[in-house]
Amino acid sequence: MAIQGLENRSGLQGRRVLLIVSGGIAAYKTPELVRRLRERGCAVRCVLTRSGAQFVTPLALQAVSEDTLYQDLWNLTDESEMGHIQLSRQADVILVAPATANILAKMAHGLTDDLASTVLLATDKPVLAAPAMNVRMWEHPATRANVALLQSRGVRMIGPNEGAMACGEYGPGRMSEPLEIVAALEGFFAEGDAPRPLAGRHAVVTSGPTHEPIDPVRYIANRSSGKQGHAIATALARLGARVTLVSGPVQIADPVGVSVVRVETAVQMLAAVQAALPADIFVAAAAVADWRVDNAAGQKLKKGGSGSPALALAENPDILATVSGMGQGRPALVVGFAAETNDVAAYARAKLARKGCDWIVANDVSPATGTFGGDRNSVHLIRRDGGEDIWADLPKSEVAARLATAIADRFETGKTE
Ligand code: C5P
Question: pLDDT digits over 249-262, tens only?
Fold first, then answer.
């Protein structure tokens, strides 16, 4: 079944994945996921829950995995041939996809009422989960608390994505696509092989735009996609940092292995950053709105009547300046961004002084560069001590990797700026 060549290029060659398929509509994508993993040289063994079997047939999973499919905790033959303890240990990683609200709750609280949940409690292997559920279920405080608890124990979340759902609603809760899950697994294994110079450090990263409400249905926003900030969170996590990503509303998936706090407004972003501190590293990559609407309407504004409404603006808190100016408890390294359309380095140096941060990553966001929303970036890294690096026309992931490496070097050499 392996497609010639793919397995040689993937870090998945020879890896053993135990795939637990729980009962969400997205389970129909799992035979495709198994195929994509196998063509990269992975051995995949599947456990299917009773409700998972409502959405994908055991025969389909057994056929594509070319291995025994495990379903029943009490099947004596399976228990004698392969107990749940063995099953949970004979893999390099356990992948739960789709991970329903129910299985996440069981994992968080250690419940074991079927083979899948028993394997998950018995395992000593890393666990990755690709959640899939209705948006309200995903956003429910119970699920949020379960996900946070699982992440704090090292369970990595892949996605979910935002989009239209089988139930007709819209929002975060769609399972990541099979190739996104494959990429997350590749990243996970690549990380395992890489050095982890930021192990033991906590990094807080802001990313994305903020939305400042005008009324319940309208808001002021900007074109930030969150791609650069999210890539920085991923890169810091790869170097071993524990990362809290405080993200404004974005359309991209959560980075793997990072705790994500979602906010909408600048005021909420500041509160979330303060709640996430203390940290060793603070990277302010979000495009925070400078102003909010001071007289935001409680009800939708209507046309007609006494002409157009006047918006009164109030200045938002400056998150970067606030964190930079903290006395006790200030992160050892505070990194800001400067999005400029001209005289990039000069304005950035002035901004570094004004904000009181240690480094500024300055980028040119004039429309011709396509930086906003695009996948590439050209930046100057400007340090308070006068040092400057120029990284021209690189993928945002590479800018992120270089910044994370520079941060790791800064901590290794113990320099103060
Ligand atoms: O002042 P300006 O928006 O150009 O500064 C950009 C830098 O400041 C970015 O790092 C951005 O994340 C941060 N910032 C902030 N809070 C604001 C405005 C900007 O953290 N209210």
Answer: 999 888 877 889 99
Q: Does residue 225 have its Cβ closer than 6 Å to ligand 1?
A: no
Q: Cα of 319 to ligand 1 centre, how many Å?
A: 7
Residue ID of nearest Cα to ligand 1 atom 8:
320
Region of 275 on the Ramachandran plot (φ > 0 left; ψ -120 to 50 alpha; else beta): alpha
> What CATH number corresponds to the domain at position 52?
3.40.50.1950
Query: What pTM value is reported for the model?
Result: 0.68
Which residue, of 168, 192, 216, is where some domain finishes? 192
Each residue's pLDDT tens digit, 190-208: 877 778 899 999 999 999 9
Which domain, by its residues, includes 344?
196-413
Q: Which residue among 220, 223, 228, 288 has the greatest number of ligand 1 atoms within 8 angstroms of its CB, and so is best to mutate?
A: 288
- CA-CA distance, 285 to 235, in Å (whole number)? 13
Clarify whether 167 is annotated catalytic: yes
